[in-house]
């Protein structure tokens, strides 16, 4: 679609189809609303990352280092030797197309380069040109192409248009994982300073202060205290939240959004009530004050640099094990990277629930369990006093967050909790949940404001499934266990499916928990009066 | 405009022909490989864009040739405009697909003179409704932007309010 | 846009094979040297590929999980789709390699617009892929009767099974029909489906057309123009015992078949066809999801720059004190 304004009669008859051109030779156009802004130089400088400078993706000149091509190719060579996944995924794709329509960005935008196979081919075509015999000898026949500035721009555009959700990987007969390809492609882009601020700024903040928002110790304490005060107003119960208490049994780490953003904050209230309810001896830290890890969206090295704080703080505080809050990509890091990168955690103990005595053998090495695992076990053993009718104003569905679903398999724990704390629970259609869940469209550092249109497109498949349960069952609450979901699904649903709110699983736990010494609960944790809220009319679709 | 009696009698075959051609032209506003996907994938969850158009366009045509109930039209158009408002279209392109209907009606329907003129007027009307909805969507996007920024610092804002 | 070059290339290869069969001076070269060299390239190439993959370590354990994890004992664990043990992985790989589990996954399309029942394309892809690979294996095994004397019992049994319905003379082997239909479907799909056509490269068409040429020449010889089986067997046994002979009775069509096979073998390790050994090494499929139970070691794990607690405390000392939080170093 060209940039000139068409004449009215053209609008009536034009066929907007672009000329059929080889994808390798269709350069990318940066249109506002569909890409993220470049990383600010101060953040790159602080992190000692290459090529800090002022630039933006729509600029003609990206101010690349003179030898940028050598840097990228050398980076590729190094990674081909370090990652079997990389070499294998570059070699074995047969382009069967099974992944083509599995990507939420492809479904929502229709841009063919959003087909996972083609996203990876952007990189493969260059791999073939410089690293395979066939590509060196007969580039045309081998599907190889030179690495040019246009190709680099294309990489930037499309690898920052993949949320690393791994949905395509579920359908690939060889398990080719576009998330892995995207992660490595972003590492390469980072080598020449092509990165996005929405990923790099949280990284810089997190490295310095311990959390994405750059909240410093006193701010952390204020937020927690504020939550404690609020809880007392709401429930009449004053909970205690020990900050950096040495010798506590458990170090609890949550995504920073939980103590800063809405609706995350209500999930925090839920955690605090839960811990108080079972008398857990725990502590939180202003140093390891971030569960999330935007290093995952930057480079493997950066994952390790940021993740370091968790074990380091657990060791310093002499806790026995860790519990992690509701966050999606945080759990990919904890489950698949932490122990390998910063372990072994031999100074900790195998997690044992002090309430039920359950030994969490599946976390015997990493020594960190998911809050949903902890809570599901409590409910199973009848250790929680619950009044699910306090969630009667919600008709609930559950959105599987990509990483817990496809990089962990945490599917049933949250469902078990929900069925016990709420009385109206409805699943979205089968091919949109569990391992086939659709991404919110804003993961992997893309949840930024300038990228909103692209996010709304990418989130359409998810919103569409929500719409189905809203119209069919009157669902008015989507629950999830991911901080990015909680930040980006409310706008998404507001646009596509107005009337559906977003909440964390532990917010509903908090609503349902009958606390000792509580005053009669007239409101939920959001302060909404319990009685007056009615679920919307059911309209059958 | 109040719903009125049907403007023109349309046979089932004519309806199918008009709607089919209209859908094809709207899908052609997307890149080739996209339009084939939108046209062919039947699952509404894997192909929400195609589904919205496939369901919506016939209903819109029924209104143009039939009672022209603006409330119903808005219901149908709303879903389509929500999609087009966040795709790579300018306002004129996002709404322009309504006008595709004019030449198609001339090609297929056995109508002439006054009826055609009346149909054209309705199509213009339809386009205006579409434009209103488009603008509403864009305003919604702007509003979402603002809200989102506020939600991110929710606790800070709330805490500040409490301490004052 | 890559279709025509691929077709022309394959036709040229057919012509070359046929010509070689007719030109006395080339018969030994194409009947003995080329096939043996091709086998050598195939074996060497595959070994080189696999060793090269194996040479790159698996730094992280990154299985794609497609079912419930093994966590709490009372939750039903998806042993095959999210294996937690080596046996589970074996099961998952077996499903993947033998039944193409992942391709099958997407057959569920319950809600269709309109009353029409539309078959989902993915199901056909799964079926065609499965049909092609299995019949290729059967055809390959049946061919052992040319290379072995006496013919092993399992080959005879397979042959009987394959020709079970005893249709026609010579007996029609189902594998031959199925492989042809499957290949034609896979090719048609590539041409007809705009998504797939858009992503297809020369090599995608070339591989399919080469296989089609190979299969068609074989079918042609079995059912239409008779070839001297005894001579073919002599040739085959000669090749396998590395004492090649090319009897005069071997017809040019056999040369076409043999040459296309040789090209396929030699091309195999350098093309996408290496997915065959590659699938076994895929780290998203062949690793158990027991990440938190057992530590995975990264051989090149290196120390990185971190922000230690001591540095952090130093940097925010005033604020920590002001907030009344404990300090490590007073």
What is this structure's SSE topology?
The complex is a heterotrimer of chains A (541), B (164) and C (330).
Chain A: H1 8-13, H2 41-47, H3 68-82, H4 84-91, H5 104-109, H6 116-131, H7 133-137, H8 139-142, H9 149-159, H10 167-171, H11 178-191, H12 197-209, H13 217-235, E1 250-253, H14 264-278, E2 282-283, H15 300-317, E3 321-324, H16 328-342, E4 368-370, H17 371-380, E5 396-398, H18 402-406, H19 412-421, H20 452-458, H21 460-473, E6 477-480, H22 483-496, E7 501-504, H23 505-512
Parallel strand pairs in A: 1-2, 1-3, 3-4, 5-6, 6-7
Helix pairs in contact in A: 2-12, 3-4, 3-11, 6-11, 9-11, 14-23, 15-16, 17-19, 19-23
Chain B: H1 12-27, H2 32-40, H3 48-65, H4 70-84, H5 91-96, H6 101-108, H7 113-152, H8 154-163
Chain C: H1 3-22, H2 24-55, H3 86-99, H4 101-104, H5 121-142, H6 144-147, H7 153-162, H8 174-192, H9 194-199, H10 202-224, H11 229-240, H12 252-267, H13 275-278, H14 309-315, H15 317-322
List keywords for this structure.
heterotrimer; A: mainly alpha; 2 domains; disordered N terminus; B: 164 residues; mainly alpha; 8 helices; 74% helix; elongated
Structure, briefly:
With 541 residues, chain A is mostly helical. Chain A contains 23 helices and seven strands.
Would you write up a description of this structure?
- The complex is a heterotrimer of chains A (541), B (164) and C (330).
- Chain A has 541 residues and is mostly helical.
- Chain A has helices at 8-13, 41-47, 68-82, 84-91, 104-109, 116-131, 133-137, 139-142, 149-159, 167-171, 178-191, 197-209, 217-235, 264-278, 300-317, 328-342, 371-380, 402-406, 412-421, 452-458, 460-473, 483-496, 505-512; strands spanning 250-253, 282-283, 321-324, 368-370, 396-398, 477-480, 501-504.
- Chain A has 2 domains: 16-195, no CATH class; 202-512, no CATH class.
- Chain A has a 4-stranded parallel beta sheet with strand order 2-1-3-4. A 3-stranded parallel beta sheet of chain A has the order 5-6-7, with helices on both faces.
- Chain A is globular, with a radius of gyration of 24 Å.
- Chain B has 164 residues and is mainly alpha-helical.
- Chain B is built from 8 helices and no strands.
- Chain C has helices at residues 3-22, 24-55, 86-99, 101-104, 121-142, 144-147, 153-162, 174-192, 194-199, 202-224, 229-240, 252-267, 275-278, 309-315, 317-322.
- In chain C, α1 (3-22) crosses α12, α5 (121-142) packs antiparallel against α8 and α8 (174-192) packs antiparallel against α10.
- In chain C, 38% of the residues are buried.
């Amino acid at each position: 679609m060209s940039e000139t304004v068409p004449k009215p009669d053209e609008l009536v008859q034009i066929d907007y189809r672009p000329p059929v051109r080889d994808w390798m030779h269709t350069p990318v156009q940066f249109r506002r609303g569909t890409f993220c802004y470049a990383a600010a130089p101060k953040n790159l400088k602080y992190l000692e990352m290459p090529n800090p400078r002022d630039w933006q993706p729509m600029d003609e000149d990206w101010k690349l280092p003179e030898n940028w091509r050598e840097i990228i190719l050398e980076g590729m060579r190094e990674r081909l030797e370090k990652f079997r996944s990389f070499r294998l995924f570059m070699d074995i794709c047969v382009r069967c197309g099974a992944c083509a329509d599995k990507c939420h960005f492809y479904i929502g935008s229709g841009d063919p380069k959003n087909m996972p196979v083609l996203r990876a081919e952007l990189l493969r075509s260059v791999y073939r040109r410089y690293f395979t015999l066939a590509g060196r000898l007969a580039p045309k026949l081998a599907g190889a192409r030179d690495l040019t500035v246009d190709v680099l721009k294309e990489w930037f555009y499309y690898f920052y248009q993949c949320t690393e959700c791994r949905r395509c990987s579920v359908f690939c007969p060889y398990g080719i994982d576009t998330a892995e390809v995207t992660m490595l492609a972003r590492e390469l882009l980072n080598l020449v300073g092509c990165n996005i601020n929405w990923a790099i700024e949280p990284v810089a903040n997190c490295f310095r202060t311990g959390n994405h928002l750059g909240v410093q110790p006193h701010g952390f304490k204020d937020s927690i205290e504020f939550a404690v005060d609020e809880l007392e107003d709401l429930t009449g119960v004053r909970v205690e939240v020990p900050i950096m208490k040495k010798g506590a049994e458990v170090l609890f780490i949550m995504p920073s959004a939980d103590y800063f953003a809405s609706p995350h904050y209500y999930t925090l209230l839920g955690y605090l009530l839960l811990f108080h309810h079972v008398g857990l001896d725990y502590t939180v830290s202003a140093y390891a004050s971030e569960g999330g890890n935007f290093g995952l969206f930057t480079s493997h090295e950066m994952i390790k640099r940021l993740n370091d704080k968790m074990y380091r703080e657990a060791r310093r505080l002499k806790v026995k094990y860790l519990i992690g809050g509701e966050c999606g990509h945080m759990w990919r890091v904890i489950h698949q990277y932490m122990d390998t990168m910063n372990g072994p955690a031999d100074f900790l103990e195998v997690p044992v629930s002090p309430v039920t005595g359950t030994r969490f053998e599946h976390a015997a090495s990493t020594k960190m369990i998911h809050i949903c695992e902890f809570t599901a076990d409590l409910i199973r053993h009848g250790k929680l006093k619950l009044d699910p009718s306090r969630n009667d104003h919600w008709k609930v569905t559950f959105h599987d967050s990509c990483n817990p679903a496809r990089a962990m398999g945490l599917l049933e724990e949250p469902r078990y909790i929900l069925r016990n704390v709420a009385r109206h629970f409805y699943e979205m259609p089968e091919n949109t949940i569990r391992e086939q869940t659709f991404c919110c469209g804003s993961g992997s550092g893309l949840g930024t404001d300038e990228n909103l249109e692209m996010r709304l497109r990418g989130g359409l498949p998810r919103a569409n499934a929500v719409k189905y349960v809203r119209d069919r069952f009157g669902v008015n609450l989507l629950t999830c266990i991911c901080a990015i979901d909680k930040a980006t699904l409310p706008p998404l649903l507001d646009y596509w499916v107005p009337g559906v709110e977003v909440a964390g699983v532990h917010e509903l736990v908090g609503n349902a928990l009958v606390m000792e010494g509580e005053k009669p609960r007239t409101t939920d944790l959001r302060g909404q009066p319990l009685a007056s809220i009615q679920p919307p009319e059911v309209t059958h679709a | 405009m109040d719903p009125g009696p049907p403007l023109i009698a349309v046979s089932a075959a004519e309806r199918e022909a008009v709607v089919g051609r209209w859908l094809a032209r709207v899908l052609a506003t997307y890149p080739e490989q996209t339009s084939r996907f939108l046209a062919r994938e039947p699952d509404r969850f894997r192909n929400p864009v195609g589904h919205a158009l496939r369901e919506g366009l016939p209903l819109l045509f029924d209104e143009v040739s039939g009672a022209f109930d603006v409330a119903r039209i808005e219901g149908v158009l709303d879903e389509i405009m929500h999609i087009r408002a966040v795709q790579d279209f300018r306002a004129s392109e996002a709404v322009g697909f309504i006008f595709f209907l004019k030449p198609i009606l001339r090609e297929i329907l056995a109508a002439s003179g006054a009826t055609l003129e009346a149909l054209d007027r309705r199509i213009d009307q339809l386009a205006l409704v579409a434009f209103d909805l488009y603008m509403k969507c864009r305003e919604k996007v702007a509003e979402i932007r603002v809200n989102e920024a506020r939600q991110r610092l929710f606790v800070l804002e709330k805490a500040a309010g409490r301490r004052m | 846009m890559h279709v025509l070059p691929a077709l022309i290339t394959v036709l040229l290869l057919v012509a070359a094979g046929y010509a070689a069969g007719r030109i006395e001076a080339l018969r030994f070269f194409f009947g003995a040297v080329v096939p043996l060299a091709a086998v050598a390239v195939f074996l060497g190439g595959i070994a080189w590929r696999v060793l090269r993959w194996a040479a790159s370590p698996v730094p992280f354990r990154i299985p794609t999980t497609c079912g419930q994890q093994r966590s709490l004992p009372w939750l039903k664990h998806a042993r095959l789709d999210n294996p937690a043990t080596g046996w589970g992985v074996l099961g998952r790989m077996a499903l993947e390699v033998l039944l193409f589990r992942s391709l099958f996954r997407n057959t569920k399309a319950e809600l269709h617009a309109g009353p029409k029942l539309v078959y989902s394309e993915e199901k056909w892809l799964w079926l065609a892929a499965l049909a092609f690979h299995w019949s290729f294996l059967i055809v390959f095994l049946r061919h052992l009767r040319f290379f072995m004397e006496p013919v092993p019992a399992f080959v005879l049994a397979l042959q009987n099974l394959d020709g079970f319905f005893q249709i026609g003379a010579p007996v029609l082997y189902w594998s031959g029909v199925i492989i042809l239909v499957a290949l034609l479907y896979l090719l048609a799909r590539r041409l007809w489906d705009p998504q797939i056509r858009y992503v297809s490269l020369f090599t995608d068409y070339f591989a399919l057309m080469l296989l089609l040429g190979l299969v068609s020449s074989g079918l042609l010889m079995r059912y239409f123009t008779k070839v001297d089986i005894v001579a073919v067997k002599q040739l085959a046994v000669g090749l396998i015992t590395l004492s090649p002979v090319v009897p005069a009775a071997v017809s040019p069509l056999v040369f076409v078949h043999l040459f296309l096979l040789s090209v396929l073998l030699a091309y195999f390790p350098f093309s996408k066809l290496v997915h065959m050994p590659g699938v076994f090494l895929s780290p998203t499929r062949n690793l158990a999801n027991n990440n938190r139970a057992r530590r995975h070691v990264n051989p090149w794990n290196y120390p990185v720059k971190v922000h230690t607690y001591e540095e952090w405390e130093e940097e925010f000392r005033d604020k920590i004190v002001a907030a009344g939080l404990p300090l490590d170093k007073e």
